[in-house]
Amino acid sequence: MVLACALALLLQTQDLSARVAEQVAWLKSDDPKVRTAATNELVKLGRSTIPVLEAVKSDDPEVRSRIAQAISRIQKMDPFFLVRPLERRVSVSFKDLPFTEAYARVFSGFAVPPNLDIVFIRKDKISLSLEGASYWEAVEKFASAAGVYLQQSLERPCFKEHGPGATFGHFGRFMVQARTYPGTILVSLHPEPGLSPVSVSFKLTQVSDDAGVSLLDRIKADARSNETPVLSATLAKLTAAPEALRGKKVNILGTASIELATDIEAVEFRRNEEKMLSQWSLTMDIRPLEGDFDFRLIMKELKGWKAPEERSYLAKAWVIVADDDGRTRVAGRMAYGGGGEHAVRGAWEHPGKATRICVLRPTAVERVEIPVQLRGIVVPD
Question: Which of 265, 359, 229, 363 is nearest to 308 (CA)?
Fold first, then answer.
């Protein structure tokens, strides 16, 4: 049985590769209508074709451009990428560029660049070299090269003229932040903008001072699980008498376990209507305001359905506002039997764009673990 399934999967992969290769060959046609038709066929094949398309090597700039167009259109059309966008990396190298030009060179390739909270346009010359840098690596190294402070807002990081910033560490597609208050360290996890975990949990391994002496006997450690994170997740809250941490640099070690969707079910609303999301009956009441987006989501519970304990995520969903160019705002999360008012106020930057409200439920997940290592945290008096 296992062998038969593996063989079927292999045949599907081979068939997909053959169909992609056929359309890629048509991208070389002298007829622009044929090239456009082939591009459209690649888009229709959907997100499973993206790894195949990314592996295509061609010296023809037309073929490369058409493949990039197809991938971009698939990402904009498939709601899966609203919660798990493809990872992007940047390679740049420059010397003595003005701040704004350097910022554009580094972050133009990312869908959500950091905010700029700079009082005046900086005239400093910036030099930086990045090779295949992830989003958080680019954010961290740019902040260091530009001499600005990095702070994390609810939706995305922000570069500020004055600090001090919090303690950060980037681990793959996630950034971990330690914010400090007298006698308190609050540790939180921030995914790349657009990447939405299904759940997050944290195991604290060690808390020590800069001499390596354990502080676990002097602090109260409250590690958290976040079953419905939206844009960030609290991993742990560490508290102690201020004198226990005074004058010390604190190191925190642990492991964050993160569930990410590998498949979803989704419905989209563009007007007031009722739709089904498996066992969920949803009614949308949209009230667009000038520059904002305001709506009410009404859920009618269907009798006799209960999410299985081993797949509790089936009773949770994301609510996301998006335009047809792929720009998004997470409006919130909800559980089966819920609903209520949702809004994107003062944050929808593209009025007049065709807008959709997407309700997405994870139907399959995978668990990834990242090491959390934050060193040299200074706790204020």
Answer: 363
Instruction: Flag whether the pTM goes above 0.70.
Output: yes
The phi, psi pair for 52, rounded to 5°, reads -65, -45
- Return the pLDDT at 365: 95
- CATH assignment of 2-73? 1.25.10
Q: Identify whether 164 is preceded by a cis peptide bond (ω within 30 of 0).
A: yes
The pLDDT tens digits of the residues spanning 208-267 come to: 988 888 988 888 888 777 776 777 888 999 888 877 777 788 999 999 999 999 999 999
Contact 250, 379 (CB under 8 A): yes
What's the CATH class of domain 262-365? Answer: mainly beta
Give the pLDDT confidence score for residue 107 in this predicted structure. 92
Q: How far apart are CA 230 and CA 318, in angstroms?
A: 8
| Tokens linked to 151 | 């702070």
Domain segments of the chain: what residues?
A: 2-73, 88-165, 262-365
Residues paired with 330 in a beta bridge: 320
- How many Å from the N-terminal Cα to the C-terminal Cα in the chain? 64
Topology of 88-165 in CATH?
Phage tail protein beta-alpha-beta fold (3.55.50)
List C-alpha distances in Å: 245 to 129, 217, 218, 238, 325.
38, 12, 9, 11, 49
Q: How high is the mean pLDDT of the chain? A: 83
Collapsing DSSP to helix, strand or coil, 28 comes out as: coil
Tell the burial category of 134 from Cβ atoms under 10 Å away from its Cβ (0-12, 13-18, 19+).
buried
